[in-house]
Amino acid sequence: MSFRIGVIGTGHIGRLHARILSEVAPGEFTCVYDTNLEAAREVARAHGVRATASMEDFIESVDAATVATPTPFHFTIGKRLLEADRHVLIEKPITETTADARVLVEIARERRLALQVGHVERFNPVLSALETRLHHPRFIESHRLSPYPNRSTEIGVVLDLMIHDLEIILHLVRSPLLSVDAVGVPVLSSSEDIANARLHFENGCIANLTVSRVSPERMRKIRVFQEDCYLSLDYMRQEGFVYRMAEEHRKESSLLTKLFASGDTTIVSEFAGRKILREPVPIEKGEPLKRELADFIRCSKAGAEPKVSGREGTAALELALDITRRIQAHRDAHPSPSSSL
Q: What is the pTM of this model?
């Protein structure tokens, strides 16, 4: 029997899953399911697949599924799929609680199923470029800003956006945490819409993360400082630069070169009597979600461990929940004038 895959949830993310699966797995993408049957039928018609009328019908129609529902439904749907021996990709955060996440991880382990969590930034070509140049990060700074989404508002910005960067930083640093500091404020919702966290690791690395979902601009950047260089990478543009000390014989670039340099130009500048070389990082651009879903299909077919497994998703969730609790504790200890009336 040929491999079959489907999508549960036909909101914004689910529609993206359906579009991409129709491209990367046209003969294997078979069906969609949503409690809103009309929405499911609309997506199904657009991609030439079937809208199932029930979860039972959906489960019988697939070997693997992506779950793109609101977070409160992740656990019950994921558990039901895994107990039916279906491979599962769940959008982030994996579940609402770490206890629920660990249950899913254990079921997947016992049944030897692929359980992948949708931390899509791990499939951004920028991260691959960073990993090849990373050996001992000392300081990491990340910024993730976006306008108000009008979706995922059932969770705060830490679980909505920062969790991407938390998972990446845990993956890059690979050292136990010593301490966490965090602050955040609500702006348009009841939970935090802007947040900052500072992570101190046992190996000496420090990471500073800033997120906002009430920004007039979009930004997704990471900067990594290590002993021999500084890397600045842009997830959105899929481009980056590495800065390092230049050899003494290198001449400083002209002002015109600096002003009109393109993204693939090497520049030499002088700071405090030292020459700094800026080189572009070669990046083979590609759509992260397409790479993520293609890799999920590969892991499901081969019985391989996903790049972002349930364990990694659980670790990111645990840290995100800790940061959320710290933000709430700070708000409780320092209430705004309006909340104290």
A: 0.89
